[in-house]
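Task: sequence design from structure.
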């Protein structure tokens, strides 16, 4: 489902960074379901990291499982309101998202949108012109990495949020991932990779001369 979609006149095809929400952009802890927009707490580096990524030319798309709705902890309307509040707070701080997509279902509902199912990324790809082959997914759970793997997206696993406990729980599949401490470290790593790719292209061109 869509909580937010930016009206965008930019028709160019761009890569995206798909962002998990809880434990990636905002604080999260085990067994906690965010039900009150007043309890929304960004990590101190979230604005900076998002600005860095959009400056690199990526569309910023949040992909989030919100099973608290399916479990009856909050209504669909309340969940959408929290997501819109998050978008507004980010925008006030100069971090502009392109979309927020959420799955409101519980784990046993067998929907097509709960991560690692690819439904939300596919929905986003219908609304934005995306270069998926150059896109990234960043998250703090194995389900994020599984989703990225299924769609062959580049990916970064974070130690923030549930990251450290997930690493203990699923060391096999997670230790194979690129692992960074937090979203800002991930954004800087993506920036470095871009610089390296650009330098290679430049070197190739200058050699041709
Ligand atoms: Mg998360
Ligand atoms: Zn779903």
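Answer:
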């Amino acid at each position: 489902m869509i909580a937010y979609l930016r009206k965008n006149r930019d028709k160019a095809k761009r890569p995206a960074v798909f962002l998990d929400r809880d434990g990636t952009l905002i604080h999260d802890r085990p067994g906690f379901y965010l039900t009150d927009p007043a309890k929304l707490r960004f990590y101190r580096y979230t604005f900076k990291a998002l600005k860095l990524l959009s400056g690199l030319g990526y569309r910023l798309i949040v992909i989030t499982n919100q099973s608290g709705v399916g479990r009856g902890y909050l209504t669909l309307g309340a969940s959408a309101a929290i997501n819109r509040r998050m978008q507004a707070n980010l925008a006030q701080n100069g971090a502009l998202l392109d979309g927020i997509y959420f799955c409101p279902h519980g784990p046993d509902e067998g929907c097509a949108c709960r991560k690692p199912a690819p439904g939300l990324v596919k929905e986003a790809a219908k609304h934005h012109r995306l270069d998926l082959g150059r896109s990234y997914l960043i998250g703090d759970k194995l389900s994020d990495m599984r989703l990225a793997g299924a769609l062959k997206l580049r990916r970064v696993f974070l130690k923030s949020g549930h990251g450290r406990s997930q690493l203990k729980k699923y060391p096999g599949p997670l230790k194979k991932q690129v692992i960074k401490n937090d979203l800002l470290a991930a954004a800087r790593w993506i920036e470095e990779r871009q610089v390296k790719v650009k330098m290679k292209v430049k070197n190739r061109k200058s050699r041709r001369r």
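The chain has a mean pLDDT of 95.
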